[in-house]
Amino acid sequence: MAQRNPLVGDIEGNARAVIDAAREARTLLGAELVVFPELMLTGYPPEDLLLRPSLNRRIDDALATIGVAVEVPVIVGYPAVRNGVRRNAAGVLYPGDEGPRHEYFKQCLPNYRVFDEKRYFQPGNSAVVFEFQGLQLGITICEDIWYAGPAAAAAEAGADAIINLNASPFRASKPEERFEQVAARARETGLPVLYCNMVGGQDELVFDGASFAVDGAGHLCLQGASFEEGLVPVDLSGEGAVLAIRGEVLPVPAGEESMYRALVLAVRDYVNKNGFKGALLGLSGGIDSALTLAVAVDALGPERVEAVMMPFRYTSAMSIEDAEKQARALRVKYRVLPIEPAFNGFMEILAEPFAGLDTDTTEENLQARCRGVLLMALSNKGGSVVLTTGNKSEMAVGYATLYGDMAGGFSVLKDVFKTWVFRVARWRNQKAGTEIIPQRVIDRPPSAELAPDQVDSDSLPDYDELDAILERYVEQDMSAEAVIRAGFDRDVVYRVVRLTDRNEYKRRQSAVGPRVSRRAFGKDRRYPITNGWRPGD
């Protein structure tokens, strides 16, 4: 099983990756069959690239190129138009063939959360089982394995084992859920199942690989690496009437480690696949920017990361000291750009229209927007992408400044609740055995430092309470009244719910960020900006 990281839309490059991996698997591991992920030739999700007129020709050319170049049979995923109908396909190509000898069409098309395959594909309706070295191998694709029908059809068609091609994105607890589904299909059919998954970051989605195989009783027989490309050797051999599977079982990261590694992979691929020279961010001395910096360095290396402290009259000496300490510890380029002159310049321009009006959040937002202007100027000049540092808790209730701290190209913590920011930061320090993130940054009360003695709790509920409410309302779709019945204060719940609903307009203008939870803002959770809905039951 070849865990590969395709580039969406780069059909020719992805075909070369198939050829190279097949050659490596044959030469180094003696592979006799190499399996690739779902839609390997286009990457996942290709979205409206599937509607481009030249796509079909390019796919056919790529399949012919692969067939001529490989020295070992391969199973690869791609979109296929047959008799005027577009389908999500898996083809079996043999050396010398200019097209697939066997072709399977995905039967179960996901059309929920981040998936919208029914927009592009028509479902298949039949099993495909082919003979290979005395074995009858059935093929399914991703969502097929979450339902009993396709696997049962393969078993009825005489399959000895099922090969499942996947582009299954990561989220918390997803590896465990995958295993439960695959093991259930194995027990239902009595057949081993090989689960080959994609790896890599693609805009909001992160694919974690973690390919694995189970035997006919649903027992784990082998487990590939997570969050990295690799070739996963699978030894299939018959022992009497039983088909045995052998291979290495690698550990699957969970909890804070899995979230951190997903963020690192997402940043690395977003920066590299989009051709940025590196990444830069505003380093405030707070926990969010500190964790974002650690992720960026692990993703790109310190030589490609720049941190910018932009102090103002309300910035504490502690923040300045901690930002510099972390920048030095991680060996990144670090500069200090005070925003006082820019702020004063804007206030001078605005003196007449602001005359006689009280100071309010306008002046606080102006500070953030001064910082956003500076970061975007550095990005334009140097070719690095700006990483925004807001977390999911803040993005939910709008505790962020449009065109200020929200200005940037990639929002690393967009789907990470504040309580998890602290957990992941502590894990990263523990893993390093040193203060990658200064302990004082973790321990101090969070503050935007846009006003004297300001702390987040002046404007928001305690993060433990806020995140517990948001998890129920955003991720579990519980109503306000249901959240209250779960034991939360009525006034606090309705305040949080109203803020969440009201700030959809901000989130629509925020940078894209990796999905790591059960329900992320963006492609996963989309509410109308203009609406008359009122929270309640």
Describe the structure.
It is built from 17 helices and 21 strands. The protein has helices spanning 11-29, 55-69, 148-156, 174-189, 255-273, 287-300, 317-330, 340-349, 351-354, 361-382, 392-397, 418-432, 439-443, 463-475, 480-485, 490-502, 504-508; strands spanning 2-3, 34-35, 74-82, 85-93, 102-105, 129-132, 135-141, 161-166, 193-197, 199-202, 205-208, 212-214, 220-223, 230-231, 235-239, 242-246, 278-282, 305-309, 333-336, 384-388, 410-411. Helix 1 (11-29) runs parallel beside helix 2 and helix 6 runs parallel beside helix 7 (317-330). The chain is elongated, with a radius of gyration of 26 Å. The two termini are 48 Å apart. The relative contact order is 0.08. The mean pLDDT is 95.
Overall 3D form: elongated
Poorly predicted runs of 5 or more residues: none
How far apart the termini lie comes to 48 Å
The order of strands across the largest sheet is: 6-7-8-9-12-13
Q: Helical content, roughly? A: 25-40%
Number of helical regions: 17
Could you give a short account of the major beta sheet? 6 strands, mixed
The tally of beta strands, per DSSP, is: 21
Secondary-structure-derived class: alpha/beta
**What Rg, in angstroms, do the CA atoms define?**
26 Å
Estimate what percentage of residues fall within beta strands.
15-25%
Mean pLDDT: 95
Active site: 38, 106, 142
Binding site for L-glutamine: 112, 168, 174
Function: Catalyzes the ATP-dependent amidation of deamido-NAD to form NAD. Uses L-glutamine as a nitrogen source.
EC number: 6.3.5.1
